[in-house]
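Notes from hallway chat w/ T.B., transcribed later so I don't forget. T.B. wanted the structure written out for a chain they're using in a teaching module, and asked if we could keep both sequence and structure tokens in one place. Agreed to drop them here.
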Amino acid sequence: MIVKDIPLNERIIFALDVDDAGQALKLVEQLGGTIGYYKIGLQLFLAEGFGLVERVRDMGHKVMLDLKFLDIPNTTGMAMREAAKRGVNLATIHAHVGSVCSAAVAQAGETTVLGVTVMTSYGDTELSELGYPGTIEDLVEARAGIALAAGCGGVVASAREAALLRRVYGDDFLIVTPGIRPADHGVKDDQHRVMTPARAIASGADHLVVGRPISRAERPVEVAEKMLEEIAETLEG
């Protein structure tokens, strides 16, 4: 396992999946001494816009803007340009078409573009609905290849496919993995392809996106600290 030079407090990207800025900033203040990276997705971004992105950054933290752009190349590129203007560190696009990925990368500036492969809430039923005849692993590998060939700095994929992607494409890109659940969590929520923090890191993931296992805990900071300890032990092992 190749260990990248990523600060431990940035290994977890905490998902701010809440309704408004007040709730989001309260979580950032609560967790800010432990976690240095925060994800703003569709729900919160539509409620609060770039103003919240800037407030989180002004608090000294990094931001992953998870809007999963998918449009014609020009529109996607211009959308990515706006994200880059606001100092977003990571931004997501669907890795379906190479020309769309390339357009986003061309406008990204210092922002790292992540190609979303297959959503971690998808299973065999969803692939069947999409009309895809292969396996999830086949589709993840193919879409990761599209993203990386277009110049994306990383991909979003389940930890279950991380080892495959490392074996096929090497180590010179980021793998960001949602669907992380502590061993004692016991609930998948709406995620199908889940994994513990230790196994995800050992499989080749660089950043772990975690939301509900921390936010719904009685002691969120303690849960986050325990997960980071598990990650550190895996990296050192």
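Follow-up for T.B.: The chain has eleven helices and eight strands. Might be a good example for the class.
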